[in-house]
Amino acid sequence: MAIYSRLVEHRVNDALSDTRVVLIVGPRQSGKTTLAKKTAKAVTATARKSAVLFYNTLRHGMEYSDPGASHYEENYRRRVLTNLERRAKSFGYTLQPAPTSG
User: Fold this and answer.
1) Is residue 46 assigned to a domain?
2) Could you tell me if residue 102 is inside a domain?
3) How many independent structural domains does the chain possess?
4) Are residues 49 and 75 in the same domain?
5) Measured between alpha carbons, how far is 2 from 72 in angstroms, rounded to an integer?
């Protein structure tokens, strides 16, 4: 069963950045619970990452160094490329880099 991205997800995330409680209402079978669970997982993951960084800083005297947006973008690009290669392989294809012009 596919879970489709909903336009309201951005509104819920924006509301959560402003307040601690958000009420999700709607008709039956419209995905309210799924939206709440999906949002809760993202919030929990972010909170855990922050807590681990804070703990390591206090416990081991480590200094936090922000890897920067380019680090995260490179990881994302690598992950997307790996997934594309895996999907191409499942269909019997092999991906090759496009020749650079110049």
Assistant:
1) yes
2) no
3) 2
4) no
5) 26
Q: How confident is the model at residue 72 (pLDDT cuts 50, 70, 90)?
A: confident
> How far is residue 78's CA from residue 72's CA, in Å, rounded to a whole number?
10
When pLDDT is cut at 50, 70 and 90, the band that residue 80 belongs to is: very high
Q: Does residue 17 fall inside a structural domain? A: yes
By the 10 Å C-beta count (0-12 exposed, 13-18 middle, 19+ buried), 31 is classed as: middle
15 and 55: one domain?
yes
Looking up tokens 């191409």, which residue turns up? 88
52 in a domain, yes or no? yes
Q: Which residue has the tokens 């804070």?
A: 54
Tokens, residue 101: 């012009």
| Token duo for residue 95 | 């991906």
Please state, in angstroms and rounded to a whole number, the distance separating the CA atoms of residues 3 and 35.
10
CA distance 77 to 84: 11
* Tokens read off for 45: 């993951």
Cα–Cα distance for residue pair 4/1, rounded to 1 Å: 10
Q: Distance between CA atoms of 10 and 60, rounded to whole angstroms?
A: 37
